[in-house]
Design a protein that fits this description.
Layout lengths: L2 H5 L14 H6 L4 E5 L2 E4 L4 E4 L2 H4 L8 H13 L11 H13 L4 E7 L2 H18 L7 E5 L8 H6 L3 H4 L9 E4 L5 H4 L15 H9 L4 E6 L15 H11 L3 E5 L13 H5 L5 E4 L11 E6 H7 L19 H17 L1 H17 L7 E7 L2 E6 L8 H12 L2 E2 L1 E3 L2 E4 L7 H16 L3
Parallel strand pairs: 3-13, 5-6, 5-7, 7-8, 8-9
Antiparallel strand pairs: 1-2, 2-3, 4-10, 9-10, 11-12, 12-15, 14-15
Helix pairs in contact: 4-14, 5-14, 6-13, 15-17
The structure holds pyridoxal-5'-phosphate.
C-alpha cells in the first residue's frame, strides 16, 4: 500500500456528502460505527437512540437477524443475475409478497433502487400508459407545493421544494402544482388529521379546467408529506383528490416512500385513509434500508394495457441493471418476513396514542408553534430565529445527538419516526430529551 493510500481512509474531504452541511460536519464529524435494534453506536462508543428509523427506512430496527442472514446466504448463493430477459426466483417471490400486503387492486410490481427512481418509474409508467391507450395528449403531471419526490429530474419537477429546484434549469415541462395543505393559523396542534383544508383539493378542478383534462396524465402526492415536515392531509382531502382524478381519467400516484410498510400503523397510507391510488410508489422500508431497493405497484388495468402486440417484443422500455437484484430481493423477503412475524405493519396503531400524548405534552415549551402526529410519525415546528431560518432546529438536532437521541430536522421542524419496534420507554426517552433541549434552546 502506498503512503497516499494509507492516509486516505481518515481523510474526510473526498466524500462530498449528500444533503449535508459538509464544512460543519467535517469540523465535528458525527460517525456511526455500529447499530442494533433501536440504537446506533457512535465512533466514540456512545449509544444513540434512533428516533428517525435512520432516514425513515429502518422500520424493523437495526441489524435484524432474518434480514442479515438472508443477505449473507444470498451473497454466497447467487450474487447477481441479469435483470433484462432473465430472472431469478426471489424477485418473483418478493413481488408476490408485496402484492399480498398491498391495497386491493395493485397487482403488479416494477423494481427500482431508490425512492427517487421509483418516482421516475411511476411518472414514466403514467405517461406511457395513456399513450398505449391512444391518449398521448395526456402529457402533463401535477405535483404539489412542499412535495418531496426525490432528487431526479422528474421528482424535482413535480416536487415543491424551492431549494431542490432552483439550481437546475427548466426541469420537466408541462408540470403544474397543487397548493400545500399546511395551515398553522387553523390547524396548529391537531392530533391526527387536521379539520380544515379539504377544500384545497378543489384546486385540482381549477388546474384541470385550466389545462383541460385531456392533457393531464397524473397527479402525484405524498399522502402524508414527510420530508417537508410531516404535513398531514386534512380530513376529506385525499378522498376529494381521488374523486376528481377518477372523474377526469387522470391517474393518481401516491408516493409512499415514507408512509409505506407500516409507518402509519397500517401496511400503507392508502389503507389508513381508505383511498387507493392507481400507482403506489415505495422504497425505504421495503428492505429496511439495508440494501437499496424500491418497488412501484400498479393496477392490473395499467399493466394489462401494455401487454399487447407481438410477444417477442419488450412491452415497456424502462428498467435498471439492478431491478430486482438478488441481494436486494433477499433483503426484501427477510424484511417482509420480519414485519409479518412481529406484526410490525400494524404495530404503529397500538402505539400511536402513546406517541401522540408524549409529543403533545411538549406544547407550551418556548418557540414551539405546532405539534402534529399520525401513526408513528410526528413533528414539532419551532418559530425560526429571525434572520436565521433553520438554525434553531439544527441546534436542537446537534444537542439531541449529544444527549444520545437521533432526531431529524427540516427547516425549523423536528421530525420523528422511530423504528416500528419502538417501546414506550423509548418514546419517553425521546420526549424527555426534547423537553430538556427545547426548554433551554436559543
Ligand atoms: C416521499 C419520498 N419520495 C421519494 C424519496 C426519495 O427516496 P431516495 O432518497 O431513496 O431516492 C423520499 C426520500 O426521503 C421521500 O420521502
Amino acid at each position: 500500500m502506498s503512503d497516499r493510500q494509507a492516509v486516505v481512509p481518515n481523510d474526510l474531504s473526498a466524500f462530498w456528502m449528500p444533503f449535508t452541511a459538509n464544512r460543519q460536519f467535517k469540523q465535528a464529524p458525527r460517525m456511526f460505527v455500529g447499530a442494533g435494534d433501536m440504537h446506533y453506536t457512535t465512533s466514540d462508543g456512545r449509544q444513540v437512540l434512533d428516533g428517525t428509523a435512520g432516514l425513515w427506512c429502518v422500520n424493523a430496527g437495526h441489524c435484524r437477524p432474518l434480514i442479515t442472514e438472508a443477505i449473507q446466504r444470498q451473497a454466497a448463493e447467487l450474487d447477481y443475475a441479469p435483470a433484462f430477459q432473465m430472472g431469478h426466483p426471489k424477485a418473483f417471490e418478493l413481488a408476490n409478497r408485496i402484492v399480498s400486503i398491498a391495497p386491493q387492486g395493485l397487482e403488479h410490481v416494477l423494481y427500482t433502487n431508490s425512492g427517487s427512481e421509483s418516482v421516475e418509474t411511476a411518472l414514466k409508467v403514467a405517461l406511457a400508459y395513456h399513450r398505449v391507450k391512444g391518449e398521448g395528449s395526456r402529457f402533463r403531471l401535477i405535483g404539489r407545493e412542499r412535495g418531496y419526490h426525490g432528487v431526479n429530474f422528474g421528482g424535482i419537477s413535480v416536487g415543491g421544494i424551492v431549494t431542490n429546484r432552483k439550481m437546475f434549469g427548466t426541469l420537466l415541462t408541462g408540470v403544474d402544482h397543487l397548493p400545500h395543505t399546511h395551515n398553522l393559523a387553523k390547524n396548529a396542534f391537531s392530533r391526527g388529521q387536521p379539520e380544515h383544508g379539504a377544500e384545497l383539493a378543489d384546486e385540482l378542478e381549477r388546474i384541470v379546467t385550466l389545462h383541460d383534462p385531456s392533457t393531464i396524465a397524473a397527479v402525484i402526492i405524498e399522502p402524508v408529506a414527510g420530508s417537508t415536515g410531516v404535513l398531514i392531509p386534512p380530513k376529506g382531502y385525499l378522498e376529494k383528490i381521488r374523486a376528481i382524478t377518477k372523474k377526469h381519467g387522470i391517474l393518481l400516484i401516491f408516493d409512499e416512500v415514507i408512509t409505506g410498510y407500516g409507518r402509519l400503523g397500517t401496511p400503507f397510507a392508502a389503507d389508513y385513509f381508505g383511498v387507493t391510488p392507481d400507482i403506489l410508489v415505495t422504497a425505504k422500508g421495503l428492505t429496511n434500508g439495508v440494501i437499496p431497493m424500491g418497488a412501484v405497484l400498479v393496477t392490473a388495468e395499467i399493466h394489462d394495457a401494455f401487454m399487447q402486440g407481438p410477444e417477442h417484443l419488450i412491452e415497456f422500455f424502462h428498467g435498471y441493471t439492478y431491478s430486482g437484484n438478488p441481494m436486494a430481493s433477499a433483503a426484501g423477503l427477510g424484511t417482509l418476513e420480519t414485519y409479518r412475524q412481529e406484526g410490525l405493519l400494524t404495530r404503529g396503531a397500538e402505539l400511536a396514542d402513546y406517541f401522540a400524548d408524549g409529543l403533545h405534552s411538549l406544547a407550551g415549551l418556548p418557540n414551539v408553534i405546532d405539534i402534529r402526529n399520525i401513526g408513528l410519525v410526528g413533528a414539532i415546528e419551532l418559530a425560526p430565529i429571525p434572520g436565521s431560518p433553520t438554525k434553531r432546529a439544527f441546534s436542537a438536532f446537534l444537542k439531541a445527538f449529544e444527549k444520545g437521541v437521533l432526531i431529524r430536522t427540516t427547516g425549523d421542524i423536528i421530525a420523528l419516526s422511530p423504528p416500528l419496534i419502538v417501546q414506550k420507554h423509548h418514546i419517553d426517552e425521546i420526549v424527555e430529551t426534547l423537553r430538556t433541549i427545547l426548554s433551554d434552546l436559543d
